[in-house]
Amino acid sequence: MLIGLVLLYVGAALLVNGIWLVGQARTSGRPAAEQVPEVTSGLLREEVLVSSGGGRQAVAHDRGPAPPAPLDPESHFSFLQGREIVVINIFTGGVGVVAAVLLAVLGGINNDRADIANSAFILLFAFTYLWIAANQFLKAGDHAFGWFCFFIAVTAVPTGIYTLRDAHGNPAAIWLSVDWFVWAVLWFLFFLMLTLERPIARIVGWVTIAVAVGTAWAFGYAILQGAVAF
Questions:
Q1: Sign of the torsion formed by the C-alpha atoms of 187, 159, 5 and 167
Q2: What is the DSSP letter of 131?
Q3: Which of 59, 124, 191, 227 has the most CB atoms at less than 10 Å from its CB?
């Protein structure tokens, strides 16, 4: 049940972070507003010089319907400021830390390797969200965080293999094993984007949103409702 609790909020954090990435990619390299001709009553106005009494004067006349003014990219629903995502990242990271500590204590008392392992794996992702939040406050670079994402991606592959090996047909365990492989791909994309600075923010954002729903939000909710169980 603790895993379901953590996954539910991981889904929320991934969803918001994915939307943030898409919004940032939309505004990257685009001006907030562009210069447009004067618009009056929906018509494009222009001035022409005409002769009048031996002189010339400017007279405005309509040139036809005006093109719509470009929208400010930051007014789009997908645009989120960096400081807006701090709250969900801190909360999700905090939930993960609390759950991991509880599992570590229980695992130590009962000498249960599975609880200790689950504690370590939860901390991998809890620290991810806390690091994102810290970077927003510190205005720090993302290269070190990208290397941490690479560490998670490499760790996730054998974890998925071991989880699938030990699933023995259990639907929840099979779902979790597939999640590990998907998380390996996503966190490797984070590494490419942050450390190697590949221009893939928009793609990563949409992938993050899909992963949020399929591997965390839906899975965590199913566990909490008892639809699947380990």
A1: positive
A2: H
A3: 191
183/219 Cα distance (integer angstroms):
14
The residues spanned by each domain of the chain are 2-32+82-224, 35-69
Torsion angle defined by CA atoms of residues 34, 38, 44 and 48, in that order, rounded to the nearest 10 degrees: -120
The DSSP secondary structure of 132-199, one letter per residue, reads HHHHHHHT--SHHHHHHHHHHHHHHHHHHHHHHHTTTT-HHHHHHHHHHHHHHHHHHHHHHHHTS--S
DSSP H/E element including 58: strand 55-65
Report residue 73's pLDDT band, with 50, 70 and 90 as the boundaries: low
151: CB partners within 8 A, 6+ apart: none
- Dig out the tokens for 119 from the structure: 């504690």
Q: At the fourth CATH level, which superfamily is domain 2-32+82-224? A: AmiS/UreI transporter (1.25.40.600)
For the whole model, what pTM was predicted?
Answer: 0.78
Whole-angstrom distance, CA of residue 184 vs CA of residue 157: 6
Give the number of C-alpha atoms closer than 13 A to the C-alpha of residue 85, restricted to the C-beta side.
Answer: 26
pLDDT the model gives residue 207: 97
CA–CA separation, 37 vs 52, rounded Å?
26
